[in-house]
Amino acid sequence: MRFNVLKRLTAGFRYGLERLTGTEVKGKLKPQWGSEVKMIALLTEEEVAKQLHVSVASLRRWRLERRGPQFIKVGSLVRYRPEEIEAWLAALPTGGAGRTEAHAQLRAVR
Questions:
Q1: 76/67 Cα distance (integer angstroms)
Q2: What is the reported pTM?
Q3: Which of 39, 51, 61, 96 has a CA positioned 20 to 30 A from the CA of residue 70?
């Protein structure tokens, strides 16, 4: 019984590494750490939700709607790269100038 559980855990870990690195991992687990994302640098759902001041449920909903920051799946775990969070925030529209131009165009039409 314990062997089967360990075997499934190892297979899940291999699958996560394969998805992270884009290379197939066979036999003994000898990942090439220079070519992949280090797990220490990745953020959890809770950490990202806290940084963005939103609930974890909102982050999950954004993932389903494909409108939140890009994420990585490691097996069943969801992780975020800090640089992806920053890029996503930078790409969000900002208020102010765009709205003023729209009002100016409306005034010109009237």
A1: 20
A2: 0.54
A3: 96
Smallest CA-to-CA distance from 72 within 8, 10, 23, 22 is with 22
Q: Is residue 61, in this structure, part of any structural domain at all?
A: yes
Residue 3 located in a structural domain: no
Q: Please give the residue range of the domain that contains residue 44.
A: 37-91
Q: In this structure, is the dihedral angle defined by the CA atoms of residues 23, 71, 47 and 59, taken in order, positive or negative?
A: negative
Domain total for the chain? 1
Q: Is residue 110 part of a domain?
A: no
Q: What is the CATH number of the domain that holds 82?
A: 3.90.105
User: DSSP of the chain, one letter per residue?
Assistant: -HHHHHHHHHHHHHHHHHHHHSS---SS----GGGS--GGGPBPHHHHHHHHT--HHHHHHHHHHT-S---EEETTEEEB-HHHHHHHHHHS--SSHHHHHHHHHHHHH-
